[in-house]
Amino acid sequence: MRVRNWLSAAAVTAIATTGLAVMAPPASAATRLGGINLSAYCQKTVNPGDASIARLVENHARGWRCIDSMWMGAPFGWATYNVRGMDLDHACRLQYGGGAYKVLEQNHAYGWACYR
């Protein structure tokens, strides 16, 4: 009988201790800074001065690319000559400063935001 009481007390202590750890609030919560300006990121990082733009090439969150173009002159106009991937953590740091990072808030192409 004593062993059973001891095991019950140990189980209650373990559950209570675990419950307290789960219910404790986080030490610090992240702050939402805002959305990511993908076109500004492309213009700053891919041949600054040329017409680099952000373009959704695949219809999902990771489908964004920087399209780098240059003026070829008449009659050709703008010609695309490079397609590059994006580093969205870097884009957040460029836009909001050190310590900023990307978070996919919603699972679609326009669901990205920056946090710190």
Low-confidence blocks of residues: 3-25
Strand content: 25-35%
Number of strands: 6
The main β sheet shows up as:
3 strands, antiparallel
Which structural class is indicated by helix and strand composition?
Answer: alpha+beta
Q: What's the helical proportion of residues?
A: 25-40%
Q: What series of H and E elements makes up the topology?
A: HEHEEEHEE
The whole-angstrom Rg is: 25 Å
Account of the 3D structure:
This protein has about 120 residues and is α+β, with helices and mostly antiparallel strands. The chain has 3 helices and 6 strands; from the N terminus they run H-E-H-E-E-E-H-E-E. The chain starts with a helix and ends with a strand.
Q: Which secondary structure elements does this structure contain, and how are they paired or packed?
A:
Blueprint: H1 2-23, E1 32-34, H2 38-45, E2 53-56, E3 64-71, E4 78-84, H3 88-96, E5 101-104, E6 112-115
Antiparallel strand pairs: 1-6, 2-3, 3-4, 5-6
Which features does this protein show?
116 residues; three-stranded antiparallel sheet; 3 helices
Quick structural summary:
The protein has 116 residues and is of the alpha+beta class. It has helices at residues 2-23, 38-45, 88-96, and strands at residues 32-34, 53-56, 64-71, 78-84, 101-104, 112-115.
